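Predict the assembly for these four chains.
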Amino acid sequence: MSVSDDRRLHVLRAIVQDYVRTSEPVGSKALLERHQLGVSAATVRNDMAVLEEEGLITAPHTSAGRVPTDAGYRLFVDRLSAVKPLGRGERSAIERFLHGAVDLDDVVARTTRLLSSLTHQVAVMQYPSLSRSTVRHVELVPIGGPRLMVVLIVNTGRVEQRVIDTGRELAPDADLVADLRSRVNSVSVGLPLPSVPARLNALLEDVAPEDRHVATAVARALADAVAEQSEERVVLSGTANLARSGNDFPTSLSSVLDALEEHVVLLRLMGSMATVDGDQVAVSIGMENPYEPLRTTSVVATSYGDAGGLGVVGPTRMDYPQAMAAVRAVARYVAEILDG
Amino acid sequence: MSVSDDRRLHVLRAIVQDYVRTSEPVGSKALLERHQLGVSAATVRNDMAVLEEEGLITAPHTSAGRVPTDAGYRLFVDRLSAVKPLGRGERSAIERFLHGAVDLDDVVARTTRLLSSLTHQVAVMQYPSLSRSTVRHVELVPIGGPRLMVVLIVNTGRVEQRVIDTGRELAPDADLVADLRSRVNSVSVGLPLPSVPARLNALLEDVAPEDRHVATAVARALADAVAEQSEERVVLSGTANLARSGNDFPTSLSSVLDALEEHVVLLRLMGSMATVDGDQVAVSIGMENPYEPLRTTSVVATSYGDAGGLGVVGPTRMDYPQAMAAVRAVARYVAEILDG
DNA sequence: TGCTGGCACTCCGACGGTCTGAGTGCCAGT
DNA sequence: ACTGGCACTCAGACCGTCGGAGTGCCAGCA
């Protein structure tokens, strides 16, 4: 019946909330004290039996309270919780903290710190990825003799440079350089990075044969800059929070730490979770995780400004509403800052 | 008497070695089995009593074996151990692994990984510090309108850039820019970074008053690049090893992890330990550490190529000879690679 | 039909006592 | 100066007991 179905969900929600708070299995009596369910302990017990049947909660042993399963958390996240809005204080703290950043590295460092201290979990952030960024400007600078410095400026603030040897003496004000510069910029500015190499190759067709050698070298340098820096990076903060989170990681603590050092894995994880569109915050709970060593953890992540992913990793016993709110708020601010 | 003094030191050495291996307190009998001391258990017991008197070892409780104290490890490191040379295999592994690096970030990342997996401790490495580096080249690039990009290339391979607004329209081939570029380079190339701002200020005197504004902006940008990036960085690897190292960190694990995230502290630590000259590997044991949360750990560190510090952090129960050998060898290779 | 109070049952974890073995300190003998 | 022997200590393992928390089920009630 719908009414009692409803109550059962209330019970599940109460169990999740209490268990997250106390980290102790929660029994029928304890529930009544903290929540106004309007029914007796016996009824709650019946409900719990059903919830257990359905695989949403489980009892560590005969005479202990219940603990949510991964499926229980999943239901809680999907249907029983609203994202907690952050307090004014928290918002202004985020703003203040992030606005102090002086450069991209600093933004990333501050963001992860902030997120880990807001959530008391491990914070993970992907560097703004080149592959989703666009070209802001390309600069070519003769730096003596046949050498040319190629500088690629990306809209996220990253700068890549290469020095190449063109095999031909170049005057600092050579027409060739000025010409190439304006052509390269006109075909690439505003475009996403991955499309750049193709555009440049197309451009080569139009270059006078005697200049083709120089142009090719430039194109290669830019393609190289794009490719090499697509090796993306990821930054962590707050690993100590894992150790602090009590008995949530009986023995697996070190394997979780190991997993977190596998940046390649984290990148893939961020990548897969950041595909969610818009403001969505993705949550992956326990066994849902594709990567085995993280099967004892939950991941709450989102993408920021189309440039990369960011989120937290923690025990499945996590305050999801709070974590989701923090992740979302921080992602918004970061996107804003990177745009500016 | 000198002979028995000698034997007592043998006993101490044996205790340290066994304890490091097994992480169990070592008793008089166990010692006899593993080491040829040529005396009876009773004699060893007497020696141990003296060692305990001297504060070099201690018994966790009445009827357990002995465990080295910080002072015991100190004596062991100073007088009882030789730095274990690495095996051929290890050396070639180091070489192979580090030579695959593609850029500075990669060198640092690979180095810390390598060191943590060689020693099974947490590896720490300071980025090659700007303050001991020299200027390789300075480039000034007009990028449209009054804006000028200032690029600083450092001999360790780092590149810093700033975009400044000069307040004056600049043609791409402006004489002023070319002139400034050559002047700035001539007074700064090859000099250590910290001396650069002063040189530039001196240079300003010689600039025509009408150009002074632009020159000042450039000088400020460079000074800024030097200063801001003297905010040094540090990279860690292998924190999972801490969790693995058994009961060496009863409760303090999370505070140690916290401490390791305080990069400022690590930098100071590296700084203070890297003052040792030449090939020396510095060891700081337990309570010797200046920073409180690291009083339960030992640090083995050295400097590489005058550019920064590098080392490992682990429990005081550490294989010092092995750690020292690994740190020294890795530091040498890194210095070599950064030079090339 | 769904809720409730009551009751018997289970089982974890704390407590206290016992025992054993490893390890010690000391002493008398060589 | 070293050794064998001996009495002593004590942490940790083992064990049975007990209390309490929590459950499942049932009969009764709205």
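The CA atoms of residues 138 and 152 of chain B lie 5 Å apart. Strands of chain B lie at 57-58, 67-68, 122-126, 135-142, 147-154, 159-165, 234-237, 282-285, 297-304, 308-315.
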